[in-house]
Amino acid sequence: MVELTEGFVLAAVVGTSDAALAAVRAGGIDMVLLDVHLPGRDGMSTVGLIRTLELSHQPVVVLVSSYPAEAFDAAAAACGAEGYLPKDALSPGALTEWWRTARPDDRP
Questions:
Q1: What domains does the chain contain, in order, with CATH numbers?
Q2: Could you tell me which of 62, 6, 1 has the C-alpha nearest to residue 30?
Q3: Is the full-model pTM beyond 0.70?
Q4: At 86, which helix (H) or strand (E)?
């Protein structure tokens, strides 16, 4: 999906919380799509850890899962994510909208 979104470049695909943290820590990551259910540590805990990293800029973090929006909207906000997006709503337009909402002065 990311590679189909104008202005976006897929920087990493990872399968665990630790790998996501390592990718963000390495830099060059502006937006993270993070599954709620990760092996070892859930996505919400991972967002909290991302927010504690000393980075030149914090990435936009959107939690994703197959559950409806109302299942995780409040949890996403509470853990420090910009929001939650059900996987069936994942589209180039949705990614662009999340980016524009979180970073209105930056182009993707």
A1: 2-102 (3.40.50.2300)
A2: 62
A3: yes
A4: strand 83-86
